[in-house]
């Protein structure tokens, strides 16, 4: 599924995945349930979840939604190093 990141400011007591889906009227098919709801800033009460882009556009102006941003693929950069038989990195 193609997804974008939706960042929300939530009361910690209301920060469970199911409640957030209900609050934003998101269907199971519109969210990445494997990713779930991840706390990204405990001090600021910020959480993020991965959502279908069309659904994200629909909830963008909902109270508590702080930002919708891309979810770029993360991959290793450069050449992977090998380990020697002694467990140290080497060539």
Task: Give a verbal description of the structure.
With 91 residues, the protein is an alpha+beta fold. It has one domain: Alpha-Beta Plaits (2-Layer Sandwich). The protein has two helices and six strands, in the order E-H-E-E-H-E-E-E. The chain has helices at residues 17-24, 53-59; strands spanning 4-9, 37-41, 46-51, 65-70, 82-83, 89-90. The strands form two sheets. A four-stranded antiparallel beta sheet has the order 2-3-1-4. The protein has a two-stranded antiparallel ribbon with strand order 5-6. The termini are far apart.
Main sheet: which strands, in order across?
Answer: 2-3-1-4
CATH topology: Alpha-Beta Plaits
Biggest sheet features: 4 strands, antiparallel
What separation lies between the terminal Cα atoms?
A: 38 Å
Q: Report the CATH architecture.
A: 2-Layer Sandwich
Task: Output the number of helix runs.
Answer: 2
CATH class (first level) name = Alpha Beta
Order of helices and strands: EHEEHEEE
* Approximate shape: globular
Helix content: 10-25%
Share in β-strands: 25-35%
Structural domains: how many: 1
Low-confidence stretches: none
User: Count of DSSP E strands?
Assistant: 6
Rg value: 18 Å
Query: Overall pLDDT, averaged?
Result: 87
Coarse structural class:
alpha+beta
């Amino acid at each position: 599924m193609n997804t974008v990141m939706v960042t929300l400011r939530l009361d910690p007591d209301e920060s469970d995945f199911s409640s957030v889906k209900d609050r934003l009227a998101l269907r199971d098919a519109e969210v990445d349930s494997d990713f779930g709801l991840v706390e990204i800033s405990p001090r600021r009460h910020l959480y993020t979840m991965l959502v279908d882009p069309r659904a994200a556009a629909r909830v963008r102006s909902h109270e508590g939604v702080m930002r919708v941003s891309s979810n770029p693929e993360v991959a290793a950069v450069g050449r992977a190093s090998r380990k020697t038989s002694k467990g140290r990195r080497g060539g």
